[in-house]
Write a structure and sequence with these properties.
Helix 3 packs parallel to helix 7, helix 6 packs antiparallel against helix 13 and helix 12 runs parallel beside helix 20. The chain has one domain. By secondary structure, the chain is mostly helical. Helix content is 74%, strand content 2%. About 2% of the residues have low confidence. The protein is globular, with a radius of gyration of 23 Å.
Length: 584
Amino acid sequence: MKATPAAAVQPALTARALLTGAALGALLTPCNIYSGLKIGWSFNMSIASALLGIAFWRLMQNLAGARHWGLPENLINQTTASSSASIISGGLVAPIPALTLLGGPAPQGVQLMLWVFSVSVLGVAIAALLHARFIAGGHLPFPEGTAAAEALSSIHGDGREAHSRLRWLGLAAAVSATVKLVSDAVGTPLRASLPGSLSLGGGALPSVGFKQLGIGLDGSLLMIGFGAIISPRAGLSLLHGALVAWLGLAPWLLANGLVTPGPADGLWFNELVGWLIWPGVTLMTTGALASLWLGRRRTAASDNAAPRAGLALPWRWFVPGSVAAVCLTVSLQVALFDIAVIVALAAVVMAAGLAIVAARVVGETGIPPIGALGKIAQLGVGAMTPGTATANLMGANVTGGAAGQTGDLLNDLKAGALLGARPAPLFAAQLLGVLVGSIVGSLSYSLLIPDPMTMLLTPEWPAPAVATWKAVAEVMAAGVGALPPLSLPAALIGGLAGLALAFWQFRAPPHRARWAPSPAALGLAFVIPAWIAFGLCLGALLAAGVQRLAPHWALRNLIAVAAGLVAGESLAGVASAFQTLLAG
């Protein structure tokens, strides 16, 4: 997609753009709080808020003569709204409720709002540092940002080509939304598991079914859309990672009694991922950090390299803003949770490192690994403060909140870069969204769950993310030795594999490097259900096939179709969550 020059010259950071985004963010944030506590899943609201914004202002233009609502204002609107809705990464549906269940000093009211704001605004500062590497000088697709840019370009475009893209986007969105609504109406996911089972060689558990391992395909067209935007390399890496994790390691773990099986007729994802997460996350982490370091070396060593992109924000704004964000996060850790200053500072440093990992994974696959990175942070903080659940949870909360906002803002910056927008106004919109989300999200959590001790981890409020964070905190209270058997050696192997793959890609000739397995995608496949990895890979392979068979059509319309698949399911999911929220 070519940058749209109009996005850089038309009014963008207007009062009505910010207020529209804030209003939509306040409306959509409770949906994510609700769905996060119900199913452990949330929705990116970028495309939904962009469509709602243009629908409202076109109506106002027709009824009241409001001035034209252009693409730049809509970009600001969707950045603000999506930032607000992504506030759940600040801890409201995982570490904060988990701390309450463990009897810790969970913040409430204004303190809760301040805490969520502090860890989230830290992510905005980190994104400013990463903009030059991942957006201005990088080539990662950032599927959610690319889909949002395509949707904005299509709905605001003129001419036959823009109208053609809009028709394809609308058709794909209608199909995707219909599939999602049918799935919700039926009450069960439209998922096809591979029939049959694997022999485990006798013992207490002679075999394991493919259904228990999650081997199959999901009916989610959103994942197909994401897959069509990511590269074939990332798609195949996800496939290989899923095969290694769920058809290789998982049966071996069960056969050797290292993991206790779940219910006979259910999915054993939660039981298995408690072990698989450790090699998967270290594979992602070392691979992402090594790729960043090697990429910087390659840029510095190239005689013909283009001038390095500058900071996304003026230094006079970035330096005091970043210092204020760090000071606020550290001081609140000390004041609210009695965490030692050195541990609080270490949590911030860890957050910066793991936010880089999140940026790499989000950029390649579109899926933010917030929960998985949170476990690494819990391990790190737990090693510094053994037996202290409060420091374990809230120190790791810093990582989750920062990584979540970093990934969300980089998606918005990717959309802005594709549309030719300046990055500075997007940072202002993101900060407003964080403020609105911190207030509305905290109020929504308090209203929905007035008594966490009796309401959470029940059939009414399963809160799977809360259960996971609570379980890891309880394990770490007993020390690193309480980790699953052989998980530490597996984590070491995963870390070494990530380094090796990053160096392989760096050293290999370009025609081979483009097919070298991606550590970020390989590791992600260890911590997500296998059917999601298969769906993303299928989308990537279908897109590659279309590009080969119909290159001219693909050049004009493929991204529009992919964006439509993402938009349709996202809108249907938001509508379903909002309806359930109002009904419940």
